[in-house]
Specification:
Elements: H1 3-6, H2 11-15, E1 17-18, H3 29-45, H4 49-67, E2 74-77, H5 80-90, E3 98-102, H6 107-114, E4 122-126, H7 139-142, E5 150-156, H8 168-177, E6 181-185, H9 197-200, E7 204-208, E8 220-223, H10 271-287, H11 289-310, E9 326-329, H12 336-342, E10 345-346, E11 348-350, E12 353-357, H13 364-385
Bound molecules: pyridoxal-5'-phosphate.
């Protein structure tokens, strides 16, 4: 299946101009079918739980393959916040240690660390203004702030409010030289960019699955490379134990945690969403995430050409290798959100303007239609202002 044919699998994309993948992606027919199949089994058989749990491990293995990881490096979580908190609280801190964050990063990332200030962690915001023309973060961004007490650097791979793609691999190299861990929020990049998580060199990478990975809310993942034992889980449950026995009797002896990422798993899984993820991975296997990345960047090229012609500035970077599927248009005049909604365009208002974000279901015509609507909006809203 090529990417053009995929659009028909996302009915919402045909019903209005859906340009809000960074908020959430519309459900696709195959994912819906996987959910239906799961609920049919639950309805008719009261739940073949053993079979479902086998399927969890199959999906874990496929997800790991999709990310360039091993199954033992993947934990299923509830969402990005849970994964980030597991990593932040799991590192061994001394009071007076510090963590470097980018100013303006996603609240769920910032709060995961702010919660640790009570235990003596210093949270150091790093300005992400790289100077004229540089709208992304790399090792040079963090170098002036890192010191011998820096225990971690934590950042979003792709920033939700600008679409900038930060140089995680370069930042991880710098951090390693200083003995610091790198904890990444990949909520916006997973399923959009062709990621090889191990090659990034990070200590932990967390994401939810309801955007690029195309499943409904309530499922996330945490990647921790082979040495998961460096992180201690804050919570413990049967799922994370190495020595379980058939009769489920627990003594009061030592807690023996699994050596792999599953040590962070708590209780039952979000089984419907894991089934849905299996169907989403089928889609990616057909189309290839590399094609998704090229596709959204091509749509970005086209959008930038239109914006140039219309005189609309982009808040984030224009360089292809520094951007993603998110484009923030510097349209801050009051009235834009309402105007776009009245034209049946689904976008988000963010701090620097109107955020347009592409999914694998968007096409060049969507971009051209948006440009026409923006042109009309510029006339209408400037007439109103006059
Ligand atoms: C960068 C980033 N991190 C995290 C989230 C959401 O966090 P969670 O998955 O915990 O709801 C979002 C958006 O919803 C995001 O854009």
């Amino acid at each position: 299946m090529d990417i053009a044919k995929l659009r028909s699998q996302f009915p919402a994309a045909e019903q209005f101009l859906y340009l809000d993948a960074a908020h959430q992606t519309p459900l696709s027919l195959p994912v819906r079918a996987a959910l239906d199949a799961f609920y049919d089994q639950a309805l008719n058989t009261a739940g073949p739980k053993k079979h479902w749990l086998t399927h969890v491990e199959e999906v874990r293995a496929r997800l790991a393959g999709f990310l360039g990881a091993e199954p033992r490096e993947i934990a299923f979580t509830k969402n990005t916040s849970e994964g980030l908190n597991i990593a932040a609280h799991g590192l061994r801190w001394e009071p007076g240690d510090n963590v470097l964050l980018l100013e303006g990063d996603h609240p769920n990332l910032v709060y995961a660390w702010l919660g640790l200030r009570a235990k003596g962690l210093e949270v150091r915001p790093v300005p992400q203004d790289g100077g004229p023309g540089k709208k992304w973060a790399d090792a040079d961004t963090f170098a002036p702030y890192i010191d011998s007490r820096t225990r971690a650097v934590s950042l979003s791979h792709v920033m939700f409010h600008s679409g900038q793609r930060n140089d995680v691999a370069g930042i991880a190299k710098l951090a390693k030289q200083h003995g610091a861990e790198v904890v990444v929020d990949a909520m916006q990049s997973l399923g959009v960019l062709d990621l090889d998580v191990r090659a990034l060199g990070v200590s932990a990478l967390a994401a939810g699955c309801h955007k690029g990975l195309l499943v409904p809310q309530g499922l996330g993942l945490l990647f921790t490379p082979n040495d998961a034992e460096r992180l201690s889980p804050t919570y413990t449950a049967l799922a994370g134990m190495a020595d379980t026995n058939e009769n489920l009797a627990v003594g009061t002896g030592q807690v023996k945690l699994r050596p792999d990422a599953q040590r962070f798993e708590i209780g039952n899984f979000n089984l419907p969403a894991i089934h849905a993820l299996g169907a989403a991975l089928d889609l990616f296997e057909e189309v290839g995430v590399r094609s998704v990345e090229e596709h959204v960047l091509d749509l970005g090229d086209r959008l930038i050409q239109h914006l140039d012609a219309l005189g609309i500035r982009l808040a984030g970077p224009v360089e292809r290798e520094r951007r993603s599927h998110i484009y923030v248009l510097d349209l801050r005049a009051p009235g834009w959100p309402e105007f776009l909604a009245s034209e049946k365009v689904r976008v988000s208002s963010v701090r620097d303007g109107i955020r347009v974000s592409f999914g694998l279901y968007n096409n060049a015509e969507d971009v051209d239609r948006l440009a026409g609507i923006l042109r009309r909006g510029l006339t209408k809203l400037s007439d109103q202002a006059a």
